[in-house]
Amino acid sequence: MDQESLVQALRKAVQELMPQVDGVIALRRVGDAAAAHLYQPGDDLSDLTVAAQFPLPTSVRLIQARYPDKTFGVVVRGCDERQLIELAKRQQINLERLRLIGVACNAEQAQGCKCDLPFPSKLDFGEAVDGVPQDFLDEFLAKSRQERLEFWKHAFSKCLKCYGCRNICPECFCKQCVLEEGLWVKTGAVPPPFPMFHLIRAMHTIGKCIACGECERTCPADIPLTLLYKLLRRDVESVFGYHAGADPNEAPLMDSTIFLADMELLRPSQKG
Amino acid sequence: MEYRHVPSVCTYCGVGCGLFLEVLDGQAVGTYPDPSHPVSEGHLCIKGWNAAGFVHHAGRLKTPLIRKEGVLVEASWDEALDLVARELKRIRDDAGPDALAFLCSAKATNEANYVLQKLARAVIGTNNVDHCARL
Amino acid sequence: MSLPSPTAQPAYQPKIIGFLCNWCSYAGADLAGTSRMQYPPNIRIVRVRCSGRVSAELVLKTFHEGADGILVLGCHIGDCHYIDGNHRTSKRIPMLRQLLDYAGIEPERLRLEWVSAAEGDRFARIVGEFTDQIRQIGPIKRVMVT
Description:
heterotrimer; B: about 140 residues; alpha+beta; three-stranded antiparallel beta sheet; two-stranded antiparallel sheet; 7 strands; about 30% helix; C: about 150 residues; alpha/beta; four-stranded parallel beta sheet; 4 helices; 4 strands
């Protein structure tokens, strides 16, 4: 099914769902890009679209917070579905009041995001394509410890402290963010002194990050953020068997009462 | 109920990064960088990320203000512009054109800045022209 | 008698910061002390209510401020005064060690151990081992940017 037919079929499905809900949250063409929009009964759906970018779950959280008693349809990609599930675990989203329509991304969209799972578990439109191989993770691990240090010191030295990575992330919802506390991240210092800011943020993504890549795409300094977050995500999956966004009934990893019995399980991957 | 994104341009500096204003029930609540913008390519600096903050701010000016007997009072544009023109002429006549300086702004267009420096040079007769970025 | 040269560098003495939980490991450290057990004086102990309150930012800031090694000691799993505080520690510290490794910082600089109130000897042994290890690894100044 080509992209145009997919979008046509999707619009039809949204039209059919509309009478059962108070509105449908989906991407809409805005200029030459796409952004989240709340379509309501009677609205023209001709500019409803699909796109690889845009952190839709943030919009869902905002709209649900304003209208907690209403029910909304949501057109979700793989990343959206997984982020909504992680947000629901932390009481930021009410999944009961959402009706999801799942859409797969095509190979080109998946490539653009370096996505390893470009479709939601509830798939209604589009064909599931293979995830993009994540070779760059092992390529990075081939570097020596000194090379890694130089790599990140250089990357983080370009940081403007725009907070774009934090702002755009759908999983970042804290009203008081530790990155804004002068105790941890010195105010008035650009770039933030290594390792504060970036390593703190990396730790806070653990168990939440599904690697949508929005942070890296919006970084004005081209810092390879998803490289770091994906390395940690891979450990979370292999060591704890925890896949962010997979199961809404699973407690959030870092806050749950499961524990790592063998603390030596994680071994440093490179000596010297 | 309303939730939409409105394409716009950041007002904070001369780069003019493309952004979408996030609008919830008629209020600008945030910004999102426009990935298709040829200048900003989906990036924003910290000011752009917070550019929605002043839109509905209580302290935002809505009319010109003129200081009368030490107190700032709301005035009409005509009253304010008449006062400015009168005073610029008076100062130029009393103290000479170089008693005045003109500061252009990154928030204005190139065309507006051009007109301002023309006013300074051709109308008032001074070369005291500079830019807010040099403050 | 030869005096040390005034321009000679002092020998590197590792700075170890220990975050010890109030209920188990701090009591264990106290026991080591009252039993007159010997352990290197390099460790500076900070008492916390629970090892689970030792956040990633606290550890990173402590390295940033010049700690060459950080020891986090808590209650054994199942014995936490707050029931499951140490469950969080048990995941956070190993993941932070992984992150340090990816960032090019020696993960051995951060160590997590469970020490009960009765294990004064275990406390002394861990501190001795850790101090030696950090002496081998070298000062943190190499990796931090202030």
